[in-house]
Amino acid sequence: DAEITQSPRHKITETGRQVTLACHQTWNHNNMFWYRQDLGHGLRLIHYSYGVHDTNKGEVSDGYSVSRSNTEDLPLTLESAASSQTSVYFCASSGARPGSDEQFFGPGTRLTVL
Amino acid sequence: AQSVTQPDIHITVSEGASLELRCNYSYGATPYLFWYVQSPGQGLQLLLKYFSGDTLVQGIKGFEAEFKRSQSSFNLRKPSVHWSDAAEYFCAVGPSGGSYIPTFGRGTSLIVHP
């Protein structure tokens, strides 16, 4: 069965370190997304990609970057981790029909920045 | 700009009681509408979606939702709640203008008392 996976599931790091969160999907979806989820804020979009070599900023992109070298993977990098980036991160993917295709979510990565 | 409002942050019901979670949207045309469920420690999973046609939509786990254009609402219902339904519920409206980015509500946390 097709799926979307994230690794690691839990990560503790220190302020100032570079951190990369992995996202891998086997749906063969062109569209991939990264969200963070915090109490009181719901889901907030960090970055998204509509295909290989395409990346776009979401509403809370500062301090984060992504790259898309193949269809399956969209890694999220925190260039210099800050305590404000302690959060739960979700990766999602969706199909080719604008608006009508639902998103498929990974299980999430809980990141703690000390 | 489109928006989604879930007026209730928390809802508490007794097991076996009926449930209605509210969702109101703002959108310029006939929207694509979704309800997702997030169980503790997991990613979001699609419960149901509405595109067109019959305004009463059936989903998984015994849930249904009714689209009411006149009220700009898409409320989620279940006739008899089970303890396993305790979760976070998100309403979303599909993107417009060729975008692939949905707009999510802030979520409603469902607490089920035995």
- Main structural class of chain B: mainly beta
The helix fraction of chain A, in percent, is: under 10%
String of helices and strands of chain B: EEEEEEEEEEEE
| Helical fraction of chain B | under 10%
Total helices of chain A: the number is: 0
Q: Please compute the radius of gyration of chain B using only Cα atoms.
A: 14 Å
Report the sheet with the most strands of chain B, covering strand number, pairing sense and barrel closure: 6 strands, mixed
Average predicted local confidence, pLDDT of chain B = 92
Q: Using DSSP, what is the number of strands of chain A?
A: 11
Describe the structure.
The complex is a heterodimer of chains A (114) and B (114). Chain A is an all-beta fold. Chain A has strands at residues 4-7, 10-13, 19-25, 31-38, 42-51, 54-57, 64-66, 76-78, 87-94, 103-105, 109-113. In chain A, the strands form two sheets. In chain A, strands 2, 4, 5, 6, 9, 10 and 11 form a seven-stranded mixed β-sheet that branches. Chain A has a four-stranded antiparallel β-sheet with strand order 1-3-8-7, with no helix packed on it. In chain A, a hairpin with a 3-residue loop joins strand 4 (31-38) and strand 5. The model of chain A has no long low-confidence stretch (mean pLDDT 94). Chain B has 114 residues and is mainly β. Chain B is built from no helices and twelve strands. Chain B is globular, with a radius of gyration of 14 Å. The model of chain B has no long low-confidence stretch (mean pLDDT 92). Classes of the chains: A mainly beta (114), B mainly beta (114).
